[in-house]
Amino acid sequence: MLKSQILSRPLDVLEAKRLVYKVYANSLGWLPEPGNPSGFRVAQDKNGAFFEDNFGNRSIWVGIYSHDELVATARILTNFQEESHEVEHYTSLPKMLTVAKAKAVEINRVAILPNFQSPDIFAFLIQSLVTTIEEMPVDFIFTTVAFPEPGNFCKKLGFVRDDRPIGEFKYSAKDKTSVSIVYFEMTNKAKIERLLNICEDIITQASKRASA
Amino acid sequence: MSVCKKIAVGFAMTMLSNVSLATVSLNHAWKLRAGTKEVALENIDSRWRDISVIDESNSNDIEYYKEFSLDEAQRKEPGQFIIVPPSWMPYQIFVNGQDISEIRANHSTPEKIYSYRIYRIPNALLGNENNVKILAKGEKILGGFRGSEVLVTSHKSYLIPAYLKNFFLNDVLIIFSILSFSISLTCFLIAKMESAHRRQYILLGLASITIIPHHLLSTSFYGWLFENPTAPFRFHLFFQAITWTSFALFYGLTSGSETVVRISQGRKMLGFVGTYILSVLAFSLYSPFGVFFTLISPLFAISAIIAPIWLYQYRHDLVVFCMGASGITLSVVSLISDVTTLNIYTHGYGAMLITLTGFYFFIKTFVRSAKRDRSAGELLKLMLPDPIHLTLDALIDAGAPVVQIREKLRGDSTLTNIFIDICSYGKMANTLPPRIVYETRSSVFQFINAIMIRNGVAFIKSIGDSAHFVGGLYQGEKTSNSLLAKHTLLAVMELLDGIDAMNIHLKEKDLPGVKLKISATIGVCEFGLEGPSSQLRYDVQGHWVNVTKRLEDAMDQRFYETYSQNVALVAAALITKCEDLTIRKRFRDLFAITDKNGIKYEAYVGRQYAEVIDHSDFMRAIYGQFSHGDVPETKPKNAANG
Question: pTM here?
Answer without folding.
Answer: 0.57
